[in-house]
């Protein structure tokens, strides 16, 4: 077999479908985000504004976070030196887990190198702890949850997105004696819609199921202390396992679960994705802990974030652009064609200095390709005006339809 030829064919298919992805080489400037410097393929540089970042609150440049990281770096050096079981547990990791357990009102928390690994490792390990476990997974769950459920070797049921009636049917059809777990999200990142947390918890109580919620796109941003949508809705106590990230609103890196001490101990002891992975660098853990602690008190930053999202959605709607608005901070503008989506993204970057990454299949279904904007408190009025004018001009230039709300 000609292996190189097969690789070329695989990459060519992506080009033909208009969904080949390229890295945009940017240099974030501390203290100036969302402004950054873009280095073009020819080596020339331009100033740009990032509109698709996951540093939702700008905490990646917050002085409290940077100070904590500098102190930990000076005190403990660069790396952790090992896995959590073998020399890689430091006071910084323990402090971070204590902050996270307190944030979610749980007995314990367990930190992983990413929320992807936290989801995958936890969901793939649970059937070892509960033989015969059936996992009921929302159809639009994140790839990390899908992978964890797929790899666990246990039974799985997929319920239609946010369809509580379908979930009930699936639960009722299974052996009432079988252990069960319902896995879902609080905010779904591509459409920005919310999961029906209370209704799912009611079903879990009725059918004796555990609950597993991914709050990755909500932690730091929702609730009086930033614990997520479940905290906002006063439902945290009804959730058995809460997954979150340290790489989005908290502005650093890593993921975690928060649960009972017994659950965290079992996952820690059985999950290969935890056992055999070098722990986060102490400076990263320290910065994350500082960010979590700060955002427990900074409601004003959360309020500004929500205000920015509402302003952008209102202005895009006023121009008739087909946006999806479920009331969250995520602002998807539907283009509906991968080639057009990529073209819009390229033109925004090259002609207007606005960086927003095209979102194509398989991240979203074919025909729903989109630009996904993530406004933040550090996007000022000038940046907002420039974005709105650019979208208006390009939508007309490309002869795309103006429409009512897409959702």
Annotate the secondary structure layout.
Layout: H1 3-16, E1 26-28, E2 35-39, E3 45-50, H2 63-76, H3 91-104, E4 108-112, H4 115-129, E5 134-138, H5 143-151, E6 155-159, H6 164-173, E7 180-185, H7 197-207, E8 209-214, H8 229-232, E9 241-245, E10 255-259, H9 261-270, H10 272-275, H11 282-295, H12 299-318, E11 331-334, H13 338-352, E12 354-355, E13 358-359, E14 370-373, H14 381-397
Parallel strand pairs: 3-12, 5-6, 5-7, 7-8, 8-9
Antiparallel strand pairs: 1-2, 2-3, 4-10, 9-10, 11-14, 13-14
EC number: 2.3.1.37
Keywords: Acyltransferase, Heme biosynthesis, Pyridoxal phosphate, Transferase
Subunit structure: Homodimer.
Gist?
This protein has about 400 residues and is of the alpha/beta class. It has 14 helices and 14 strands. Belongs to the class-II pyridoxal-phosphate-dependent aminotransferase family.
């Amino acid at each position: 077999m000609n292996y190189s030829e097969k690789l070329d064919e695989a990459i060519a298919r992506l080009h033909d479908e208009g969904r080949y992805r390229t890295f945009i080489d940017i240099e974030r400037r501390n203290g100036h985000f969302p402004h950054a410097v873009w280095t073009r393929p020819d080596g020339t540089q331009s100033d740009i504004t990032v509109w698709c970042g996951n540093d939702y609150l700008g905490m990646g440049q917050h002085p409290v976070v940077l100070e904590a990281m500098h102190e930990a770096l000076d005190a403990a050096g660069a790396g952790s030196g090992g896995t959590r079981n073998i020399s890689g547990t430091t006071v910084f990791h323990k402090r971070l887990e204590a902050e996270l357990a307190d944030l979610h009102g749980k007995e314990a928390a367990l930190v992983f190198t990413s929320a992807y690994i936290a989801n995958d490792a936890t969901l793939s390990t649970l059937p070892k702890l509960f033989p015969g476990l059936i996992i009921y997974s929302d159809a639009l769950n994140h790839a990390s949850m899908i992978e964890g459920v797929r790899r666990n070797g246990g039974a799985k049921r997929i319920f239609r997105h946010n369809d509580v009636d379908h979930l009930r049917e699936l639960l009722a059809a299974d052996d009432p004696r079988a252990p069960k777990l319902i896995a879902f999200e609080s905010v779904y990142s591509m459409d920005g819609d919310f999961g029906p947390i209370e209704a799912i918890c009611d079903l879990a109580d009725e059918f004796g199921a555990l609950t597993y919620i991914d709050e990755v796109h909500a932690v730091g941003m929702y609730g009086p202390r930033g614990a997520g949508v479940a905290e906002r809705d006063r439902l945290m106590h009804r959730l058995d396992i809460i997954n979150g990230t340290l790489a989005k609103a908290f502005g650093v890196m890593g993921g975690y679960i928060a649960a009972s001490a017994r659950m965290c101990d079992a996952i820690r002891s059985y999950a290969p994705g935890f056992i055999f992975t070098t722990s986060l660098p102490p400076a990263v853990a320290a910065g994350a802990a500082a960010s979590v602690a700060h955002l427990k008190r900074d409601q004003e930053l959360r309020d500004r974030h929500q205000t920015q999202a509402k302003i952008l959605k209102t202005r895009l709607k006023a121009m008739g652009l087909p946006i999806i608005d479920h009331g969250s901070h995520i602002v998807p503008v539907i283009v509906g064609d991968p080639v057009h989506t990529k073209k819009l993204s390229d033109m925004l970057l090259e002609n207007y200095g606005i960086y927003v990454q095209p979102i194509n299949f398989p991240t979203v279904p074919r025909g729903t390709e989109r630009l996904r904007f993530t406004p933040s408190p550090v996007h000022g009025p000038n940046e907002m005006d420039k974005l709105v004018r650019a979208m208006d001009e390009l939508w007309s230039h490309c002869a795309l339809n103006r429409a009512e709300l897409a959702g």
